[in-house]
Amino acid sequence: MTELTKRSMCDLGRAIGAGALDPIDITTQFLDAAEAHPFGPRIYARLTRDRAMAEAAAASKRAKLGIRRGLLDGVPVSWKDLFDTAGTATEAGSALLKGRVPQKDAEMVRRASAQGLVMLGKTHMSELAFSGLGLNPVTATTPCVNDHAAVSGGSSSGAAGSVAFGLASGAIGTDTGGSVRIPAAWNDLVGLKTSGKRLSKEGVVPLAESFDTVGPLVRTVEDAAEVFAILDASPAADLRGATLKGKRLLILETTAFDDIRDSPLAGFDHAVSRFKDAGAVIERGAIDVVEKAMALSGILFPVEAYGAWRDTIEANPDVMFGPILDRFRAGGSVSGVDYFSAGRALEMYRAEYLAATAGYDAVILPTAPILPPNVDRLLSDADYYVTENLLALRNTRIGNLMGLTGLTLPTGIPSVGVLLQTPPNTEVALLRLGAAAQIALS
Known about the structure:
Layout: H1 3-6, H2 9-17, H3 23-36, H4 40-43, E1 44-47, H5 49-65, E2 76-80, H6 107-114, E3 118-123, E4 143-144, E5 147-151, H7 157-164, E6 171-175, H8 181-186, E7 190-193, E8 213-218, H9 221-232, E9 248-252, H10 262-277, E10 281-285, H11 288-294, H12 297-315, H13 322-329, H14 336-356, E11 362-366, H15 375-380, H16 382-392, H17 394-401, E12 405-410, E13 417-422, H18 427-441
Parallel strand pairs: 2-3, 2-6, 9-10, 9-11
Antiparallel strand pairs: 1-3, 4-5, 6-8, 7-8, 7-12, 11-13, 12-13
């Protein structure tokens, strides 16, 4: 990895603006690195070199004319392989969609391209986005940057790998139960889960549409803020003067620490200590309604997922990875009455959660209670697969169930993140808090 490919998106953008770097050279270096890297084929499902070079050339021309469209104009990123891209296959990590070529870009791709982000390619992912592990024997399993024998986390597995291995400056993924935050945490990145209806999902292959969200995986909170602003078509959050001093943070004790492993606990405790040193007021507390909401996830997620995919799956089920197929089919055994009842209960639980946390600037918890599991053992040990798959997304799923905004930050312990969660549509406030937290952790 060269120094250029280690730099943040905003650093690259500033260098382009200063005339020190050219988008053509930056893009060429990332594409060449992706093609030469031994894990390149396990990170990228396909590169889009022709599109990337055309977009980079246009950005280069704008830079020379002094008409850049923004800080990130000319900066190259990767896209999870469930964002539709005109003329380029979008297969969502599944043989069920092999050869599917959309006729137009997804709304988020169009918006990013209009602001000058350069598309490097489409990244591998968990099959149809229905796993937090990133294990995909059907297409490819992206390795974790800290343990090449382990999974990278999912479902935005290749998205995280592209940034962590220096094959993209940033990545755009999706998060239904933790699919941005888990791979970000396990690869020592920043991951932003946006509010449920904040960013358009038009042209995004769905999983469970009530819970699907779009978000970036990047190196810094500043990068996350700039990418979010582009996707949201809003001004970027002003991170200047961000501080933790006097901020009230609640450690969520309900569910989040059950069966937690030593390293994730140590990383979280380290983060809490640094937040205290920076002046944050830390409290601990249980929120009983979280446990009640978690009990509904086995109803809500599988029913939505199977409802969206049943006909496609049952037309060709043998091409799917068995555990993912089973997870989808679990939705078929839930009655309509139970699903409707669960949805109504969740609305009530969300209101109770927001009332219980209203006096805090954020709720904090370990992003994941486990480290990235070993690939070979996941494939050979069924019990291990089930245990690790459920634990991987357990903490992050709280945010999706409650409809929250979430930001995971690296703690300094490899593959361990700390998660900050705030109410829906508070991305700007969360990013300011996250900027201060990142400084404290550094």
